[in-house]
Write a sequence for this structure.
């Protein structure tokens, strides 16, 4: 078995070592242009040249959950694309989102500002019944986030493409249900994949349907959000603010208004990082399952786009 590794801006050496340890008889190497053909590839944002040269590939393992960048390449129709399926990301996403929701709900930014000026001042307790959280995307990450939010007794709504039945979560599905989902939601968490259907889905028309004082947490992809519509709705007072981890251009340019906006919190695409050991273990397990002729989770449907 030949395995090639091709990463944009990430050292492949520890991955080569991990895969080689799991498959001592295999040839495992970091890709260079003109390298010998491989059977399986482990990739993050590879160039089109890699795909064009590696014509013998059976499986392409993406070391992230989102495959939007990969699906923009010209891929052979027979190539099986496999994404990471949790691999330690869902617990990170749950802690990030719960932290953002609770910081907003409990007004901790205000207490931080008070502390800077030595001010001892209580804020009036708010009712969590007035802070329904809506999770867009109830997949591997979204479901975990929704269940984590339930532990803090927030009312939780969920939105997906296909119908779901999750205990205690008010589930909506399909584009026709989007207005009802938004109108029932005050804090919106985006965890959908970026596809032709979801690009720019967080825009003036949708975000203005959130309940007054709404709050936006985008942890999926920057291209889901129309930046200027978010800023306009925060400045008009309809939305209270946002926590954003993903951006249309990354790194977020220094001149972007999100950096300086007093009601927007920015983090550098870090809400759920790829964990190397967990990811290698998952990919090795899937390669072994494929060798045994078994089905695996996380196979991408290119027509759906995720
Ligand atoms: P997933 O398991 O594939 O779940 C995707 C969910 O989105 C599914 O519930 C799906 O509905 C729903 N969905 C897809 N298209 C939809 C549409 N048009 N309308 C309504 N719902 C739709 O993906 P995941 O592993 O949870 O990851 C989700 C995304 O998180 C990734 O694609 C990636 O962009 C992002 N992410 C970000 C970070 C970060 O650090 N910021 C880290 C990891 C992942 P069905 O259940 O009906 O199919
Ligand atoms: C990160 O954004 C991922 O898709 O895993």
């Amino acid at each position: 078995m030949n395995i090639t590794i091709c990463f944009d801006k990430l050292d492949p050496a520890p991955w080569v070592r991990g895969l080689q340890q799991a498959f001592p008889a295999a040839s495992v190497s970091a890709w260079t242009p003109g390298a010998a053909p491989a059977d399986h590839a482990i990739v993050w944002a590879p160039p089109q040249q890699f795909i064009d040269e590696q014509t013998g590939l059976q499986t392409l393992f993406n070391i992230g959950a989102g495959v939007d960048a990969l699906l923009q390449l010209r891929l052979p129709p027979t190539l099986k694309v496999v994404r990471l399926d949790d691999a330690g990301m869902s617990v990170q996403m749950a802690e990030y989102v719960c932290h953002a929701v609770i910081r907003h709900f409990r007004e901790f930014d205000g207490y931080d500002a008070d502390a800077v000026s030595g001010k001892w001042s209580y804020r009036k307790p708010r009712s969590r019944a007035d802070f329904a959280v809506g999770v867009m995307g109830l997949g591997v990450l979204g479901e975990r986030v929704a269940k984590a939010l339930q532990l803090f007794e927030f009312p939780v709504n969920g939105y997906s493409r296909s119908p779901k039945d999750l205990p205690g979560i008010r589930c909506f599905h399909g584009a026709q249900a989007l207005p009802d989902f938004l109108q029932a939601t005050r804090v919106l968490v985006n965890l959908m994949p970026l596809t032709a259907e979801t690009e720019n889905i967080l825009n003036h028309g949708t975000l203005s349907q959130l309940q007054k004082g709404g709050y936006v947490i985008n942890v999926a992809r920057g291209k889901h959000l129309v930046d200027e519509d978010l800023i306009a709705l925060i400045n008009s007072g309809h939305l209270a603010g946002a926590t954003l981890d993903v951006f249309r251009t990354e790194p977020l340019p220094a001149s972007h208004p999100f950096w300086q906006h007093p009601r927007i919190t920015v983090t550098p695409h870090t809400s759920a990082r790829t964990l190397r050991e967990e990811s290698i273990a998952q990919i090795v397990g899937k390669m072994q399952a494929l060798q045994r002729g078994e089905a695996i989770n996380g196979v991408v449907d290119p027509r759906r786009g995720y």
In short: The chain has two domains: 2-87+274-291, 90-266. Residues 65-66, 89, 137-142, 159-162, 191-195, 197-198, 219-221, 245-246, 269, 271-272, 306 surround NAP (ligand 1) (CB under 6 Å). The first strand starts at residue 2 and ends at 7.
